[in-house]
Each structure stands twice: as structure tokens, then as C-alpha cells.
Amino acid sequence: MLRTTVVPTMLRAGNKINVIPNAAEAQVDVRRLPNETREEVLARCRQTINDSAVDVSLAPRQQMPATEPSSLTTPLYHAMERAIARVYREKSWFPT
Q1: CA-based Rg of the chain, rounded to a whole angstrom?
Q2: pLDDT of 32-49, one tens digit each?
Q3: Which terminus of the chain has a smaller tally of CB atoms within 10 A, N or C?
């Protein structure tokens, strides 16, 4: 809810333990904010990688529509909020 997240979920490289692979692939799960476009996220990824010594390509595969955010006012949400507050209040490092 606060920022776009990018999480590597699958990594693939060589198939022998004693050989340095000449290529590697990472598949990542990206959850973007509703106000960001796919192109903005890809541009930020390219800017972050920005390594002229390595040939990197981005190949978006699947895009799924966003779901409606869960309500923060349901009885379940309030129960979870109270339970979490109780647990963390018992810890000495919890800010009061």
C-alpha cells in the first residue's frame, strides 16, 4: 500500500556446479501502486539496473488486473488490529 514491490521468485543459471554460467535469468513478481503505469515501473527498473558492462533485457510476461483493496473497516480487520497491538504492547521495544 506504500510502494511498488519487486520480489525475485525464480532464479535460473547454469546447470553444472563447477562451471560459471554465461547467462542467468530472474523472474520477479512486481506489485505496483494503482497510480503507476507498467511503463513507469519498467523505466525505473532499467534505471536501477543501468549496467553497461552487462547485457540486461527486461521481458514482461504476464499482467493481471488489480483487485479491489480490502476494506480497513471490517470487523475482521479491527480484530486483527487489536490482536497485533496487544502482542506488540507486551514487547519492551514497542513504542507507546
Answers
A1: 20
A2: 887 888 899 889 988 888
A3: C
Rounded CA separation 83/39 (Å):
40
> Look-up: residue for cell 494503482?
34
Query: Do 29 and 11 meet the contact criterion of CB atoms below 8 Å apart?
Result: no
- pLDDT for res 46: 87
0.70 exceeded by pTM: no
Angle in degrees, CA 27, 1, 40, rounded to 5: 55
Joined grid coordinates for residue 28: 520477479
Residue type, 74: T
3-state secondary structure of 76: helix
